[in-house]
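Same chain as my last thread, 267 residues:
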Amino acid sequence: MKNIFTLAEACLHHPDIEKKLTLTHQAQLLLTQGQLSLVSEQPPLAISCVQFPSTPILLSTREMPKRKLGSPDGIKAFFHAIAHVEFMAIYLAWDMLYRFRGMPDQFYQDWLRVADEEAQHFELIRTHLQAMDLAYGDLPAHNGLWDHATDTADDLLARLAMIPRCMEARGLDVTPAIIAKFKHMGDEASVSLLTRILTDEVGHVERGSYWFKFVCAQQGLEPEPQYQLLIKKYYQGGKPKGPFNREMRIIAGFSDAELDWLENTSL
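reply #2:
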């Protein structure tokens, strides 16, 4: 029987993209077949051991070239950026289940499913890029998402607050408007792809909310003030700026009080 943490280590510590995708899908299949052990055999390696492909070249957000959706180059750059986000999301889901031990089996099952769905998203976007004569890695990308993973490597609550409940939740806020732009442009292929990703991402954020509240209960903490505390500590600038998609965020496990706090620019 294969072990989930052994497969996680292989995905996180080898840079080959195809191997990573294959192992992710294989792990999910083994889980559905009851052939995947969730027993922790060895402690995790340090997060500094994680390896990434040699491309794309990683730049700071300030160094990234500015392109608008109104041009073909802008559309290519947009989907390359989304491909990078989804590729990094594979790492983030695997690292979530690999790094934090002693949780219920459902925690590891949930984040493996997320990793598998993120791998599907990446493959779909990569195919979309190929139709535009572009390959993943042809353009630069930024590594801000992984910086958050590094910052929260020793704190599960902080990781849950910053990745699914902050950075991934931003997709719920901005993607509907982007879908509307592609609809206006008559680009149904892009609309279909982004709609599929958005639907899955609501579920990913919901799992982040569920496990954030679970760990808070374990530690005797109130989730809402704890969320505020962690966002203020780890989010550069204090907290993300709106507008926020209240409807989708509530479906994904946010409370009205959390959303009121996010929207209140005086706090």
